[in-house]
Structures are given as structure tokens and as C-alpha cells.
Amino acid sequence: VQLQASGGGLVQAGGSLRLSCAASRDLFSINVMGWYRQAPGKLRELVASISSSAITDYADAVKGRFTISRDAAKNTVSLQMNSLKPEDTAVYYCNAKFGVGAYWGQGTLVTVSS
To answer: Does the pLDDT at position 29 exceed 90?
Structure first.
């Protein structure tokens, strides 16, 4: 599975960004797709995920602010990020769990200024 992420950038606190991840295969064949992030000096952490049956899960830190969704026709999963905070600053990675493997897209940097 190849993943192509896009949509990062610089935004002021309180602003919004939308990340997209295009997958090279049918989303319904992928068990779970998710977004992770890694801030400087910190471990990579799960931000949000969506299963092939559209069950979503969110980290407590982003609940109510971030929304993960998918467009099956475009094999794309998006992460709408609202009310961004400086602590959301990180490199965001798209991830796909397919079969027994996990696949990563290239990271996209999100910087939230205070």
C-alpha cells in the first residue's frame, strides 16, 4: 500500500487545516487507516483512525476538534483539524493497516503558532 499525504502548513492558534491521505488501493480492503503525529522529542502517537466499517477513534487530546473521514471513491482519508493549538504542532503521518502489515506515508508538517 502506498500512501500520499498532503495538506500540512502553518496556521495560527484557533485556525483550521485539512490533511489528506491518498491510498493506492481500495479503502475497503484496508483494515484501518489513521493519522499519527510526532512532535520534536516525543514519541509518535495516534491522533485518529477509521476502520473499513467506518468506526472512528480519536486521541483524547483532539476529541471534539479533529474529524477523520474517508472518500471511498477517491481512496482518500482526510483529517479536518479545527481549533488548532500550539501543542498540535508536529509532523503528521498517514498509516494503513493492511493484512499483517502497517504502511506509512511521508510526513506532513503542521505548525501552529501562538
So the answer is: no
Q: Which residues contact 91 (CB under 8 A, 6 or more apart)?
A: 8, 37, 38, 39, 107, 108, 109, 110
C-alpha cell at 6: 498532503
Grid coordinates in use for 87?
501543542
Q: To which residue does cell 484501518 refer?
A: 32
Under DSSP, the state recorded for 88 is: G
Which pLDDT does position 28 carry in this prediction? 80
In this structure, are strands 56-58 and 66-71 parallel, antiparallel, or unpaired?
unpaired
SS3 sequence of 56-82: EEECHHHCCCEEEEEEHHHCEEEEEEC
CA distance 50 to 11: 25
pLDDT tens per residue across span 40-97: 999 999 999 999 999 999 999 999 999 999 998 999 999 999 999 999 999 999 999 9
Greatest alpha-carbon span in the chain: 41
Which set of grid coordinates corresponds to residue 93?
A: 503521518
